[in-house]
């Protein structure tokens, strides 16, 4: 499954950059969340790409420029425990991103 993002303006019309695939890892990438730090976006999502060695969902993230260039093409592993990690949310706090997610069954 591919995870795709699009930058939208408030009127709901896609910005000129259109959409971009941020992950084409195997298995499922779902439940995306996105925040903006004034320079770049951070997209985070639930990911099961590690199923061959870890049967639980994990949390990944990557940075995107405003023109949707993917800066972390392999993704950044945020949470990779053996428990289910799912449905992330992300916010920019002025100096750091804060990512929260569900853990457990
Ligand atoms: Ca996990």
Counting DSSP H or I runs of 4 or more residues, the number of helices is 0
Please bin the fraction of helical residues.
under 10%
Oligomer: single chain
Give the end-to-end Cα distance, rounded to a whole number of Å. Answer: 23 Å
The tally of domains stands at 1
In terms of DSSP E residues, the strand content is over 45%
Overall pLDDT level: 85
Low-confidence stretches: 8-16
- Strand line-up of the largest beta sheet: 3-4-5-6
Shape: globular
Give the cofactors and ligands: calcium ion
Number of strands: 8
Question: What does the model show?
Answer:
The protein has 105 residues and is mainly beta. The chain has one domain (3-103). Helix content is 0%, strand content 54%. It has strands at 3-8, 14-23, 29-36, 41-47, 58-64, 76-79, 85-92, 97-103. The two termini are 23 Å apart. Residues 56-58, 80-81, 83-85 line the site of calcium ion.
Walk me through the topology.
Elements: E1 3-8, E2 14-23, E3 29-36, E4 41-47, E5 58-64, E6 76-79, E7 85-92, E8 97-103
Antiparallel strand pairs: 1-2, 3-4, 4-5, 5-6, 7-8
Summary keywords:
mainly beta, 4-stranded antiparallel β-sheet, 8 strands, globular, binds calcium ion
What is the gist of this entry?
The chain is 0% helix and 54% strand.
């Amino acid at each position: 499954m591919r995870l795709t993002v699009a930058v939208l303006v408030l009127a709901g019309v896609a910005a000129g950059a259109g959409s971009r695939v941020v992950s084409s890892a195997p298995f499922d990438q779902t439940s995306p969340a996105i925040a903006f730090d004034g320079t770049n976006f951070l997209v985070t999502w639930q990911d099961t790409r590690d199923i061959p060695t870890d049967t639980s969902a994990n949390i990944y993230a990557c940075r995107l420029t405003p023109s949707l260039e993917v800066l972390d093409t392999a993704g950044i592993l945020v949470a990779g425990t053996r428990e289910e990690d799912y449905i992330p949310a992300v916010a920019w706090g002025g100096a750091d991103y804060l990512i929260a997610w569900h853990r457990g069954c």
